[in-house]
Probable transcriptional regulatory protein pdtaR
Amino acid sequence: MTKLNIVIADNESIIRMDLREMLEEVGHTIVGESVNGLKAVELTRRLKPDLVIMDIKMPEMDGITAAKIISEEKLAPVILLTAFSQKNIVEKAKDSGVLAYLVKPIQPANLFPAIEIALSRFAEIQQLEQDLNNVKNSLEMRKTLDRAKGILMDAYNLTESEAYRRIQKYSMAKRKSIKEVAEAIIHAATK
C-alpha cells in the first residue's frame, strides 16, 4: 500500500488516537485532525490529503454534510465512520459521495481494504471525469472545425476536404493549432 497523507475527523479523541495509531503503524501520515465536519472540510481544502476518514456524528457540521462538500469539490476520497448502521444513515451516506462506510469499532482488517477500495474508486471517478472532458473538448473542436470549413466552403466554393486542407496548411505555416485557426476563421466571418 502506498503511504498516504490522511485527515481524521472525529469528536471522540480516543477514536482519533486509535485511528492514528493504526494508520501510522503501517506508514501513513496523519496531516490533520478535527473534532467537527467544518474544520475537516477546511483542513482538507488546505492540506489536500490523499484520504479523509471521518465520523458521521460531529458538532457544527456532521460528517455526511462535510463528506458531500469534499466530494463535490473533488478534494479527496472520504471514508465515513459511524457507531450506527441504520438504513436511513446509510442512504444519506450514499448520497454524500463517500467511497466507503465503516461501522465502529474499527478494525485494521476492515479499515485497510476500505482504504484501498476508496482510493481505487476515487481514481476511477477522476479518470472518468477526465475522459468525459476529453470527449466534450473533442466534440467542441469538431463543431468549431466543421463551422470553419463551412465558412471557407461558402466563401471560396471549396469542397469539404479542400477547406480542411487550407485550415491544416495555415495551421502548420503559422504554428497554430487547427482549433485556433478554425476559431480565427469563425471570428473573422462574424465581424
User: Anything to note?
Assistant: The first strand starts at residue 5 and ends at 9. The first helix runs from residue 13 to 25. The chain has two domains: 5-106, 132-190.
